[in-house]
């Protein structure tokens, strides 16, 4: 696995009961993936990740082991990498919301509730996949054009990276 570069997304597995819960949720909405969590490498051995206690800046070695990096899959300039890292750092402290999982589940089940989607968009809360997509969008990189950032899951990021890897 390549060494991460500033601005890279890392995908991890979550163990224990939390991992089992996420796996079940992914399976239930038809979004199963072998990873359950996403984070952004911001340089100097540090990552930003969304957690139930809020988005945090921690040492990479204290995060769940990364099983896949976006390194060399998403082409970024050095300036874009720095912008992504800056945007991720700016999101540290952002609250987490389990309601976002309900919104994603309803969307995946074909229920498009504007009220819930508007609430997710205006809440200022983020889950891990949303934090990654938002940091990229704020840096001017659209990983999922024409997709509401609140509907992007870790499984979506995994499939995007696997597609990029297959086309590389």
State the secondary-structure class: alpha+beta
Instruction: Describe the sheet with the most strands.
Output: 5 strands, antiparallel
Domain count: the total is 1
| CATH fold title | endopeptidase fold (from Nostoc punctiforme)
Number of E strands = 5
For the biggest β-sheet, the strand order reads 4-3-2-1-5
Span between N and C termini?
15 Å
Indicate the proportion of strand residues: 5-15%
**Average predicted confidence as pLDDT:** 86
Report the principal-axis shape.
globular
Tell me what the CATH architecture is: Alpha-Beta Complex
Number of helical segments with 4 or more residues: 6
Can you lay out the helices and strands and say which pair or pack?
Layout: E1 9-12, H1 16-28, E2 37-43, E3 46-49, E4 56-59, E5 66-69, H2 78-90, H3 99-108, H4 114-123, H5 128-138, H6 154-166
Antiparallel strand pairs: 1-2, 1-5, 2-3, 3-4
């Amino acid at each position: 696995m390549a060494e991460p570069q500033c601005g890279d997304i890392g995908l991890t597995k979550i163990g224990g009961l939390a991992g089992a819960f996420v796996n079940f949720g992914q399976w239930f909405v038809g979004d199963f993936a072998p990873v359950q969590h996403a984070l952004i490498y911001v340089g100097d051995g540090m990552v930003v990740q969304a957690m139930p206690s809020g988005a945090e800046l921690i040492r990479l070695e204290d995060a769940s082991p990364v099983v896949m990096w976006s390194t060399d899959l998403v082409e970024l300039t050095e300036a874009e990498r720095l912008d992504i890292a800056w945007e991720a750092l700016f999101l540290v402290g952002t609250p987490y919301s389990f309601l976002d999982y309900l919104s994603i589940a309803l969307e995946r089940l074909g229920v498009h509730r504007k009220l819930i989607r508007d609430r997710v968009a205006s809440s200022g809360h983020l889950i891990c996949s949303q934090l990654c997509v938002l940091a990229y969008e704020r840096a001017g990189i659209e990983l999922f054009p024409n997709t509401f950032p609140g509907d992007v899951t870790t499984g979506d990021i995994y499939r995007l990276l696997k597609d990029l890897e297959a086309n590389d």
